[in-house]
Amino acid sequence: RKIMEASPIIFVFLLLLPTTKQHGGGRIISKPIRENRVNIKRFFNNSEATWTFITTETSNIECKVDVTLAMNSTFVKFETSFSLNGFRVNVTNFGKFQRLYDDADKRNYTNYNAIFLSNPGREPYGYERLLFQTKDNSCGVFLVALNDHPYQWYELRVRNSSRRMPRPRCANYYLNVTRNKGKRRQVYTVECQRIFYPRLERAPW
């Protein structure tokens, strides 16, 4: 518990120890994970807050959290809140469900795995693509991209109820997909609960 409070990133690596194996020369590498058939609608179909746990994004954003406000068969409306330089920022987003698969035979995939992002009254500005999700939807790995911009980054997101213990397979997938993709940084800490839930005099987390 003390390790987790100090650094979620360290905790994730500790979680992965049972899923690694040693190869010649003493080098430890993670076992590869096959992508499952993801369903982004299923991931968003939840009223629980979803925290960005770790990211390769390079800004100073901290305590990023998404909450689904409404959803139908075509769109999801959700609020993204985060802390930037000591200020809390709230942004309303619309996501239009899309299928963005790399596979040549993408016709076999019927689930939506991405959303095109826009703000109310504005043109789409980017997309989020779900690369991996656990069966209970408590953890997911996302690729985020902006239109007309080469910059992309990866996020590991967890439900509020699972923020202290992301599923090992989800964390392992994130480590594999972000290898050589930039520096990983911690976004969520226990302090985020106190920032976004100030009515709690003493947070039990």
What is the fold's blueprint, element by element?
Blueprint: H1 2-6, H2 8-16, E1 20-22, E2 28-30, H3 40-44, E3 50-55, E4 62-71, E5 75-84, E6 87-98, E7 114-118, E8 126-133, E9 139-146, E10 152-159, H4 168-177, E11 185-186, H5 191-196
Antiparallel strand pairs: 1-2, 3-4, 3-10, 3-11, 4-5, 5-6, 6-7, 7-8, 8-9, 9-10
In brief, what are we looking at here?
The chain contains 5 helices and 11 strands, in the order H-H-E-E-H-E-E-E-E-E-E-E-E-H-E-H.
**For the residues shown, what is the average pLDDT?**
82
How many structural domains? 1
Distance between the termini: 10 Å
CA-based shape? globular
Assigned CATH class: Mainly Beta
Largest sheet: 8 strands, antiparallel, barrel
Oligomer: single chain
Percentage of residues in strands: 35-45%
Bin the helical content: 10-25%
CATH superfamily: Calycin beta-barrel core domain
Beta strand count: 11
Q: DSSP helix count?
A: 5
Low-pLDDT stretches are 1-35, 199-205
Radius of gyration using CA atoms only: 17 Å
H and E order: HHEEHEEEEEEEEHEH
Walkthrough of the structure:
By secondary structure, the chain is of the alpha+beta class. It has a single domain, classed as Lipocalin. It has five helices and eleven strands; from the N terminus they run ααββαββββββββαβα. The strands form two sheets. Strands 3-4-5-6-7-8-9-10 form an eight-stranded antiparallel barrel. It has a two-stranded antiparallel ribbon with strand order 1-2. It is globular, with a radius of gyration of 17 Å. The termini are close together. 28% of the residues are buried. Residues 1-35 and 199-205 have low confidence and may be disordered.
